[in-house]
Amino acid sequence: MKKILLTIIFLILFIIFPQQVSANKPKVAIIGSSSFYHGCKELSYRKGFVIQLREAYPDKNFECFAKGGQTTKYFKNQFNDNVKGKGFSELIIYAGLNGLAKELKPSQDDLIEIFRDAEKENITVIVISAQPFGKYGDWTQTWGDNIIKNHEWLKGKPEGIDYFVDIYSIIKDSADEYKMNPFYAMTDGLHMNQEGHNLMFEKISEIYETGSITNLNNTSNNTATPVSLTVNEIDRMVAQPTLQIRIPGLNFTGGLKITKKDGKTFIQTDFFQQYLVAVYKYSVIAISILAVFMIIVAGIQWMISGGSPDKIKAAQKRIGQSIIGLLIAVGSYTILYTINPYLVGFKALETQYFNLESTVTYAEGEDSISGKTVNEQCLMEKFHLEIGKKPELETVEMFNLFKVQVNKYSASAWEKVSDEILASDDPEIKGILHYMKDFKNKEVPDLAGIQDGAGLVSQKIGNGVGYSRKNGEPLKKITYDMHVNGLAVDFMTRSNWDFKTPLSKSKKGDTIEKWCPIYKRGLENLKKLKPDDPYKMYDRLDKKLESCFNNFNNGTDPWSIWPDEWIKIFERNNFRWGGWGWSAPPKVHRTDGMHFEYLGECENVDNKKYPSKTT
Fold first, then answer.
1. Degrees to nearest 5, angle at CA 236 with 234 and 239
2. pLDDT of 248 above 90
3. Is 491 helix (H, G, I), strand (E, B) or coil?
4. Cβ–Cβ < 8 Å for 191, 174
5. Residues 324-376: pLDDT tens digits?
6. Is the residue at 5 inside a domain?
7. How many domains does the chain divide into?
8. Which residues contact 509 (CB under 8 A, 6 or more apart)?
9. How many Å apart are CA 365 and CA 600, to the nearest integer?
């Protein structure tokens, strides 16, 4: 009897626990050909994008399955052999290039099979587009056309794709869409250099950090397109659950994805999915332990039955029932999967989000520029702001380049400053307008080296006035954001990034160690493309770069691409410029050169005239 019980217990442990693994990092599969193979390598002249991802996201386990010269057949084999059913949560896959020289459909069939299988396992799929390579010796017109057709097909986000990173549109040469911009290309015209790998890293990082891609161009209205919400909005809507009854082994992680379908915004969370999985596993273990206990009890009853046929029969019946219950518990997954695979799919919970109207914004969450007072009561009265309500808006055309939506009661000020900029005879202002126009038309890159026309203007409109609390106190302080109230707009965002020197005490903003070298490379590239300086800004930016590498000349010369007269025109019209900093004057150690905000007469007002409601 003891041998039987020990055998049963061993089988139970063998069935239940072989799949138990330690809490490993989320696994990310990297599948591709030579571009991805290079991405997994670090050389003296190039650090691959996967190497950069490993450094930036140590909480993820990036595993490479890439090899030069391979087609989507190789991709499919790698997925089936090394990824499928192996516990991966993400797949970053190359769109394919080598198999498209003559035909398109076989490659797309392979990718569709991968996408569908990944979707069944709830694997997040990020597709990186192929790059133009018209300069490469073996290139043919058919091959180039197939790359573009495949690119357009993937932009439509076929079944199973969560994110499509459109590298092609960013790095193509403005003079020939079949060729790669030399700024991103190795000498062979096929593979990407360090700038290209930096770009792939940045775009994937955007997905990880914001759930969106700023250059995403999706022509389909029926596919799920990632969109961006602010951190504060996400925190308000989705918070990690706090359980009253802890379930062993359950640790909520990640679990947030924001998508857009048919013009509607949805938030997908994995928390409920993770909870169901944990409850299921815990229930199977609990039922199994109970069944083992009942088997042991029945065994004891059998042993002390004294040979009574009735007692032996009752004990045998109880053992049989317990074993049946045990088999049903441990075999429940197989039973449910056989009935319907979706019964065990544990898909993420999807909730529609209402009352959001936004575009990507880079400088949000600040009340106003530090060091100057703004009375919130004046702000609310003059610009007709109400708690929890979106401001009245009006559309204004700026610099004959784009339109923005601003607070209705500030519209005339934005129109006036735009007219004065356009009427200026300052050659540097004319030059910067010329540069913005060429960037908008994707004829030149911005100083970050990206030639996509994105970030020319950035704003966010929402319900921007509310109350805040501190340290658990009652709600009392009015809080507001100049962007969401239609009083602030960012221009040329990536060329005027929000960053700081080592002397800054702010937790926000990027570092000069990162951005000064980027801007130096960007300016050098621009000089190669336009050596005659049609924008009248090369000398000015050379000097700005010197101060950039010198902590903004110890905080006295903040970074921006704007001419002095451009900034003065805004300031003469009661605008504030973010370049003067988010840290206390007179020295600026965190600068936000993209940011312009209008406060009118609400700057430095008399607090007696507008009594504060913050106390």
1. 80
2. no
3. strand
4. no
5. 888 887 788 778 778 876 666 666 667 765 543 333 333 333 443 333 445 66
6. no
7. 3
8. 498, 499, 500, 582, 590, 592
9. 20
d(CA 174, CA 107): 28
- Strands 88-94, 27-32: parallel, antiparallel or unpaired by DSSP? parallel
> Which contiguous run of DSSP H or E holds residue 276?
helix 271-303
One domain for residues 440 and 513: yes
- Residue that is written with structure tokens 């700081």 in the block: 500
Q: How many helices (H) and strands (E) does the chain have?
A: 19, 24
Do 526 and 452 lie in one domain? The reply is yes
Q: Give the domain extent around 572.
A: 357-602
Using DSSP's 3-state secondary structure scheme, residue 260 falls into strand
Query: pLDDT per residue over 19-36, tens digit each?
Result: 443 345 789 999 999 999
Beta carbons within 10 angstroms of residue 279's beta carbon:
12
Helix/strand/coil (H/E/C) assignment for every residue in 463-485: CCEEEECCCCCCCCEEEECCCCC
Examine the pLDDT at 135 and tell me if it is beyond 90.
no
Domain boundary among 206, 225, 244: 225
- Measure the CA–CA gap between 424 and 525, rounded to whole angstroms: 28
Structural element, H or E, at residue 336: helix 332-339
Cα radius of gyration rounded to whole Å, the chain: 30
- Inter-residue contact 436 to 399 (CB < 8 Å): yes
Phi, psi of 539, deg, nearest 5: -65, -40
Domain of residue 186, CATH code: 3.40.50.1110
Query: Taking all residues of the chain, what is their mean pLDDT, rounded to a whole number?
Result: 79
- Could you tell me the two tokens for 535? 């924008």
- Same domain membership, residue 262 and residue 195: no
Residue 75's Cβ-count burial label (10 Å; 0-12, 13-18, 19+) is buried
Q: Are residues 261 and 402 in the same domain?
A: no
- Residue 615 CA to residue 599 CA, distance in Å, equals 23
Q: How far is CA 24 from the centre of its chain?
A: 23
* Entry pTM: 0.44
